[in-house]
UniProtKB/TrEMBL annotation:
Region Disordered: start-end pairs: 290-318
Composition bias type Low complexity, residue spans: 299-310
PROSITE patterns: S1
UniProt similarity note: Belongs to the CvfB family.
Coiled-coil region(s): none
Classification via Gene3D superfamilies: Nucleic acid-binding proteins, Winged helix-like DNA-binding domain superfamily/Winged helix DNA-binding domain
Origin species: Paenibacillus baekrokdamisoli
InterPro entries: CvfB_fam, CvfB_S1_2nd, CvfB_S1_3rd, CvfB_S1_st, CvfB_WH, NA-bd_OB-fold, S1_domain, WH-like_DNA-bd_sf
Encoding gene, per UniProt annotation: yitL
Name recorded for this polypeptide: Uncharacterized protein
GO molecular function: nucleic acid binding
SUPFAM superfamilies (alphabetical): Nucleic acid-binding proteins
């Protein structure tokens, strides 16, 4: 037998060497288990114990009775405990020490990289010299562990973690709770409200349950609900504008709409269309304006501001 880092092996306790700890053996090789790695009762020489093999902080092979959150070749979701800008992210693996997720495993764009507290689905692997490292788990590994989403999920809100982000959209492993590992989903780019980073926990609505058990997701409300919220937001914005007018309309570029209101151009047009049908606003070229009968609040606010300014000016003269 060989001592394989990342695995649990049954080894015989050969001897105690104070002040270091215990040496265990597989009959060919020995490995040190420090006193701090003992769990439960004091071990006895000659007895066999199940221990996890790893590399210590000085890259020496070592053993522990502690149970890791992940083993060699397995997939697990681990929390980001710390970040090193030039090396990568360090994951909590349940041993009182951390596992490196190298920078090479993370997205090139800095804003898409995980932050402290995010949780990333990874595979425990070995680097070229046998040290344990984390590699990001992708669709081929995660799909084997995912369960089929039930049709009852349609139009419900779920939460999960981002496993990969592309220009076309973001892949999500939905929280499985007591049901298991999770269900696999995808948020198309047009249904994201912003860019999503690896390992970020997001909340999204199930828009479609596919035959293969995967789901399409959206971070937006249903159109009829979103239209009400968006129209209220635009109306409030107009009422704060001088003369109840804004230089945004159906002709405005989508990027400008997204930046100003945080919604897609399609959602903007639906909201404006609702306000126009209700006779609240009109459009003139690139401008959207409140109709006169809906400007009372705006005019009153402006009149109040003028009155305050005049009062302040009078007091200053005195």
């Amino acid at each position: 037998m060989t001592l394989i880092p990342g695995t649990i092996q049954k080894l015989k306790l050969a001897r105690e060497v104070s002040p270091y700890g215990y040496f265990l053996t597989d009959g060919e090789s020995e490995v040190l288990m420090h006193y701090t790695e003992i769990v439960g009762h004091r071990p006895k020489v000659g007895e066999e114990y199940d221990v996890f093999i790893f590399f210590d902080s000085e890259d020496r092979i070592a053993a522990t009775m502690k149970t890791p959150l992940i083993m060699l070749g397995e997939v697990a979701r681990l929390a980001i405990a710390d970040i090193h800008p030039r090396i990568g992210a360090f994951l909590e693996m349940g041993l009182g020490r951390q596992l490196l997720l190298p920078l090479s495993e993370q997205p090139e764009l800095k804003e898409l990289r995980p932050k402290r507290g995010d949780e990333v689905h990874v595979i425990l692997a070995q680097d070229k010299i046998g040290r344990l490292v984390a590699k990001v788990a992708f669709e081929e590994e995660l799909s084997e562990l995912a369960f089929r989403a039930p049709s009852s999920w349609h139009n419900t809100w779920v939460e999960g973690w981002v496993t990969k982000t592309l220009k076309i959209g973001s892949f999500i492993m939905i929280d499985g709770g007591v049901l298991g590992f999770g269900a696999y989903g995808f948020i198309p780019a047009e249904d994201r409200t912003r860019l999503l980073r690896l390992g970020e926990r997001v909340r999204a609505r199930v828009t479609f349950v596919r035959e293969d058990g995967r789901v399409n997701l959206s971070m937006n409300q249903r159109k009829e609900v979103g239209r009400l919220e968006d129209s209220d937001r635009i109306l409030a914005f107009l009422r704060e504008r001088p003369g109840g007018a804004m230089p945004y309309s159906d002709e405005t570029q989508a990027d400008t709409i997204k930046q100003k209101f945080g919604i897609s151009k399609g959602a903007f047009k639906r909201a404006i269309g609702k306000l126009m049908r209700e006779g609240i606003v009109t459009q003139e070229g690139s401008w959207t304006k409140l109709n006169p009968e809906h400007q009372a609040g705006t005019d009153a606010a402006e009149a109040s501001e003028v009155a305050v300014d005049e009062q302040v000016g009078s007091q200053e003269k005195e």
